[in-house]
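Why does residue order matter? Because the sequence determines the fold. Keep that principle in mind as you read this record.
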Amino acid sequence: MNIKKFENIKIFIGPMSKNIVDSVIELCNSENLQLGFIPSRRQVEYSGGYVNRWDTKNFISYVNSRTDNVVLQRDHGGRGQGDLKRNDYFSFASDAYCGFDLIHIDPWKEYLDIDEVVKETAENIRLCNRINPECCYEVGTEEAIHKYSHEELDYFLRELKQNLGSLWGSVVYAVIQAGTRLEGTKNIGKFDEERCKKMIEVCKKHGLLSKEHNGDYLTAEGIKKRFNIGLDGLNIAPEFGVLETKIIIDSIKKQRPELFQEYFELCYNSKRWVKWLPRSFLSKDLNEEDKLKIIEVCGHYVFADEKFIKIKNSLKDLDVKIKEELKAYIKEKVLA
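Structure:
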């Protein structure tokens, strides 16, 4: 029964900004589409996040009050995730209490042993279930955090199923790995079709839907290929933040070029770009091309900063342009 609720949702989008959230809601309502949101703990958390300064309760309330066509999922909940690492269990409790439809249970950063991951995952699911028995779950992790084979995924799911007993029915998705990897504003991974097929079969064997992370910067053909071989869901996140940032940069260059340096300094001082750019980049002299790369990969992290809001407010018709282009992008590439 739980799987039927989600099986028609192919794309899960990172809510990198209020414009992205509003664009997805408006598109889903006007086209009668079903999509998912996958906020990370840094984006939306019980104590607030960098996306519109929303806390978990306010974010869920905002989306649910505007549409019935968007599924809400916590992405990468668990130990070692988020900025408030000492409050991992409180974060889970808040997610369940505030009403996420799905919670991704991902303690893989903290544990190397699969049996320990099984135990921690099961405990997290039991915690959330005590608070909200209606909540469903995604398990496993992406390759950048912990790489596993299809045999290891099979073992993990088998042991987790045994550990959970009747609660196994609340698990809907397992994360499969097929070689995707992000660096800067590119997907530099190499798609392994056979590995993907084997992991999809493992998910089917255990009665779960398969989901791949890091679907950013793929071609429409690359996305279609994955679904054609049986993939059930795909996460796309930073790509939408980068797209919005590029629209902003274009408007700055056309309307207020003197603001480029100010926007760069906000991004540079945030240090968020370090996650996305190679180590060799740190030693470079920052020319205009380098500055542009830094803005592109982390511009969305500062959207809620008062200094950025002043920059944005000085640009004419920016929000209208952003939402038009975001909706067109989703329709033409992701939903083609």
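Residues 42 and 82 are 5 Å apart (CA to CA).
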